[in-house]
Write a structure and sequence with these properties.
Strand content: 25-35%
Distance between the termini: 53 Å
Helix content: 10-25%
Number of strands: 14
Number of helices: 7
Radius of gyration: 23 Å
Structural class: alpha+beta
Length: 355
């Protein structure tokens, strides 16, 4: 599988020095282009291997500035080996143009019923989603939106799924004259995502495998309604319309800084980072006092409707949803937008003193 899955091993930037919450965009500017993220076109199954406990442990380690990890992508061999059989229609003539023109695909995509607990984000596109937060791939035997939703529901914290038809080769195309452009088959693929999907993320229109052209049709995307676990010791989540923009409280700034992650969006990572911040501060008091992280705002930042990662903004006091007024901004031709914003409050008694 390609590089998106690697990003599930959380990468984080260091804490910002506390200041009023003017949004920090620099971490999001370094996110890879969407067309480089997602499943390998040669794959028919890539099971979900996201581990929420490991992600939370990574967030705690990130407070101590643990480095991210990466793995190189391996090129296929082109061995002419038979590929798993497909399930969808194959056009006659067997060409990419005929595949994209086949009426079966838009008919099924446009008539698909949106599953309970989801909102349809896009329909009948000729591109699959490629963005951060890739979680896994399943190949279905029919264009079964409900079954794809079941896969997402079973893979917390899956935020969205993409179902589509893909023109694939019947054998692994060779890079010599043996089998460079074999007959095609049609796979029906279901990919799971740790961020919401939008039409702007469905930019993977296929690729060349030797002389065989992979193309995509009937691509639908669905976003899950917000459902998040509440970690022990915390209350929430409160679903917010934007990010928190808190004023001074009795002349004091309650904003403690932020963490930015490119892994699967899981607000429990933010509560873990908040707890770890309190623990770190407790080990490094100043005049017997330390700052306690009591409130965290988790949200996804998109650029032109493409998720760039998620932020964990931390506070020493709680704030109600009326202070969620930071919706993003426009920078030149790029529109940054806050989505899937939630908050949690920790009411555990901690007076912030060591002596």
């Amino acid at each position: 599988m390609r590089s998106a899955l690697i990003l599930s091993a959380l990468a984080a930037v260091t804490f910002a020095i506390p200041h009023p919450q003017s949004m920090e965009y620099a971490p999001a500017d370094d996110v890879p282009a969407p067309d480089s993220l997602g499943p390998d076109y040669a794959s028919t199954v890539e099971p979900v291997d996201y581990d929420p406990a490991a992600a939370i442990a990574s967030a705690v380690a990130a407070v101590e500035e643990a480095p991210p990890s990466s793995t190189p992508y391996e090129k296929r061999s082109g061995s002419c080996e038979p590929q798993p059989p497909g399930s969808g229609s194959v056009p006659n003539p067997d060409t990419p143009v005929a595949f994209l023109a086949l009426a079966d695909f838009p008919t099924l995509a446009e008539s698909a019923v949106t599953p309970p607990g989801y909102t349809k984000s896009f329909s009948n596109l000729q591109g699959s989603t490629g963005e951060l937060g890739y979680m896994g791939l399943y190949t279905l035997t029919s264009y079964d939106v409900a079954k794809c939703a079941q896969k997402c529901n079973a893979a917390y914290p899956c935020q969205a799924f993409n179902i589509y038809f893909e023109r694939d080769p019947t054998v692994d195309p060779s890079y010599d004259d043996t089998c460079p452009n074999p007959p095609s088959l049609t796979n029906i693929k279901c990919t799971l995502w740790g961020y919401p999907v939008f039409a702007e993320t469905a930019k993977n229109t296929g690729q060349w495998r030797s002389q065989f052209q992979v193309v995509i049709a009937g691509s639908n995307g669905y976003n899950k309604d917000p459902v998040y676990n509440t970690p022990p010791g915390w209350t929430g989540p409160a679903v917010l319309p934007a990010a928190i923009n808190a004023p001074l409280l009795y002349g004091e700034n309650t904003y403690m800084g932020y963490k930015f992650f490119e892994g699967v969006y899981n607000p429990s990572v933010c509560t873990a980072a908040c707890d770890a911040t309190t623990a770190y501060n407790r080990r490094h008091p100043s005049n017997c006092k330390y700052n306690v992280c009591r409130f965290v705002n988790a949200y996804v930042l998109t650029m032109n409707n493409v998720p760039q990662g998620f932020y964990c903004s931390m506070y020493s006091a709680g704030w109600d949803p009326s202070y969620a007024t930071n919706t993003g901004q426009t920078r030149g031709t790029d529109v940054y937008r806050v989505v899937d914003s939630v908050s949690f409050f920790n009411g555990t008694v901690d007076n912030g003193t060591t002596c």
